[in-house]
């Protein structure tokens, strides 16, 4: 009887270990690493389809625990996004020429609803006869969209990040106000920040950044909003 009880104990212990090991097995997809088109590049390797469109190859490294991928493409002029699903680590997509884009990969696992997103990379899909390229729209860093801010002595700071293919950004214009068409409050900024911005409590603000390069090209970050407590 004693030997039988010892046997049952061992069986239960082994089963418990198996369940424990199974419980810690991760099904969360790994983070994909992008390869091409490269960050902040002029894409010249696409296949021209027409005067307005070309086909571009996107590639990335495989991610662990992943069954499929979503390629998400964002047109940085219209701010519209397109999603393409694939089980491969490369895919062709038809894009507008002469247009800046941002892209990222979302890794998916069939047995989990959790997805893992790669970094976002920007590139410019080139067009015929282009000798200079507009800067990429500025990335709004702070305040983020919808963020609630507690000011210090009635003032806040604004931060953003700018990039361009030719590394020739000349200046920024900051537009800020309480309507969805905020006026320019500062022109000719060469730094990607604006300090000591006076704000009013219990107020929603709208803001955008206009980026200018040395060739006279410019882009709009798109409209963002935040609230002051």
From TrEMBL:
InterPro entries in the record: Ig-like_fold
Domain of life, per lineage: Bacteria
Gene3D superfamilies xref list: Immunoglobulins
Name of the protein this chain belongs to: Fibronectin type-III domain-containing protein
PROSITE patterns: PROKAR_LIPOPROTEIN
